[in-house]
Structure prediction request, 818 residues.
Amino acid sequence: MSRRARAILPGLAVVILFALPLAPEIAGSRRLVFRDAQVTHWPWRREAVRALASGRVPFVDAAASGGQPLLANPNAVLLYPTFLLERVLVPEAAFNLHYLLHVLWAFFGARALARRCGLGGGGSLVAAVAYAFSGMMLSYGGAFMNSSAAAAWLPWCGAAFLDLGRARGGGPRLAAAAAAGLALGLQLLAGEPAISLMTLALGAVLLAATAASAPRGVRAGRLFAGLAASVGAGALALALAAPLLWPLEAVFSLTYRGQHLYSQRASGAAAFSIARALEWLLPRFGGNPDLLGGGANWLQSAPGGDFVYIWCVSFGVVPLLLVVLGALRRDFWDRRSAALFGGGLVALLFAFGFSLPFYRMIFAVGFLRRLRYPIKFYLLTTVCVALLAGLAAESLARRRAGRREATVLVAALGLFAAAWALAAPGGALDRWALPLAQQVSGDAAPFLTVFRGLVRGDALLGALAVVCLALLLRPRPAAPPDRSWALGWLALVSAFPWGLPLFVSAPSRDLVRPPALARRLEGPGRIYVSARLPRFDPSALRTSEAEELPRSGRVSRILVEQLVAATGAPFGARYIFETDPDGSYGYFNRLAAEAADASTPAERDRLLILFGARWTLAEDGEEHPLFRPATGIEVAGKRLVLSEIAEPVPELRWAGRAWRRPTLSATLDLVRSERFDPRRDVALPGNAPADAAGAPVAARVEAEGLDAGAASATVEAEGDGHLIFSRTFFPAWRALLDGRPAPVLVANARDLAVAVPAGRHRVAFEYDAAPFRRGVAFQAAAFLLAAGIAIATRPRSGRGRQPEVREQVEVDVRPAAV
Prediction:
């Protein structure tokens, strides 16, 4: 077999093995629906595609929370290359492939990083499988569009920084800097700032490590050259991501995260814990997301309201055992393995959040306090463990297994046997989980049955993996072939049974069918969906008596039927507030939503009417005194009521009477009171409170245009007043009064307003497109620069040309002599 074939065939085999069980998702007959995939990413993408089809750039999502920035929202991932799949594939296939392709991209990136760390073909296969099919990567790959892409680029960036640190001479260093800039720039376009910051930290460590491995006299020079080149790579990355970063900079100050630093509780949410280490050997101890319940994470989070951000933290049973077995022998330990172990341990300590003091160093920095979920540091731990697994596989392939290895494998079998015994009906696991299950449901038996089955299933799969591992490592009379390849395939196959259920999907035909209430939402106005939804009876979802728990895919249809924000947006629903923190992107809109939740029913309804609500959807019994019940619907055992008012407040309207309040809280108190008329009044910022006096000034408004990111009208006013546009205020909004720029004011603690004097005037609102245009120009220049560097530094054949010499760590992969 040729060298090229040995390089290509393993990757091709991984692609095929991964794709076969996910063929329905690849073809688009099923759609990924777990968490953010359905609630935010799918609606945002459909809104963007709809805008482009009508000839508009999707600067604003008019369906989301009173109009939210869409192109500038990093979580929407609209400027990332995979968005182009929407042009050539059916929407469901294009959507799913973004997630699935990045699992494979993570595999190839981890393999490239492993090869640059000196691992051979088999060891790099083990490392790539351990990273790409880890619980962390697959948890991202099944739910979070931005995180999955950013995590997939992390090993590619690491490999590029290693090349950068090892490059000798101006040409090779320039080429390495361009490669690092491209990788980092695409990661920035994925829109996950925390992972990008961790990538930069990883790059800095790798640059320092390569400089430290150089001869003593040249270390400082190499480090300085690497850092200088990395600055150029960072500038190139920023330019490539400019179409996202520049529009984001224009609105960041008034996003929720830009305005407020997270509290200690919010910043440290979803940290790693000692209890979750059980998932190292029992990956589904945290539950199976494809089932509605039945896991420790699910049982513990549902009663307490704790958010489980990463569903599974397993490294994989085989990679973890390889690391343990490799670490038993002295020949495994060198500077490289010690550095990987130390780096992984430090990252793990940060993943514990405020349970340990290390995370407080991050919380003390104001900018970093805007980030959350310390378990993201676990991604760096996963990279280190994956590389250690590859090193261990090569170490074990060179020597015979002895008593130490046999002892560890027997102990692992004992642990899995103990897990099997503890998960017996009526056993210790049942006694531990029963109180939690009783808090979730009156019928705890189905939850316990499924939970017990998951633990026993993992115990059986783990035991089989140990037996296979023992067979591969057994002593042989003659020098065996390189066993590291077989170890890589074993790691891959053993990851599928627990890893594939993380890709929760539902039949596309069920999800594209309009909800029953969609036909009632035609015409102007927005809908308020109660924050208490979704509500459903799990027993109503069971398709047969034999089914212990229903599939989570069925819940996806319930979310659509209950119009849980923003699942109804593809069917025409336009929302007042969205409960998801990423959907409620605007600071002003978020505060208005919180005020509504803290109000009496009448006060809440006044706020809803002010911001353009025409309908409310809530469970039967929730009070909405200012709305009239229009229809009811029963969904999954719960009765919902759709209420309505006859005429919603127009999105573009005249306010002939102004109130002034110095704070947002005072403004919100005013606008939800009976004193304030939402159809004729406006509340504006002021240095001191000032109530409106006299009768409202009359005016005639002729709307000329109204869409997501623009509005215009001709106003004939009898006196001074304000034209209001019902969009969430952001600094990117601009206004023109008779063709001249006019200040855009914050109206009613959320909306836009322009002061209009008496007489006839033309007023126009528009979302500022200039930052995006500048960003596109910088990105184009960056691509041209990168292409020029690639052409200028490409290898040239010719006589007398000396091959480039690059430092690289080599590992002897020959089997030890018998």
Notes: Residues 798-818 have pLDDT under 50 and may be disordered. The chain has 28 helices and 19 strands. Residues 260-439+446-503 form one domain.
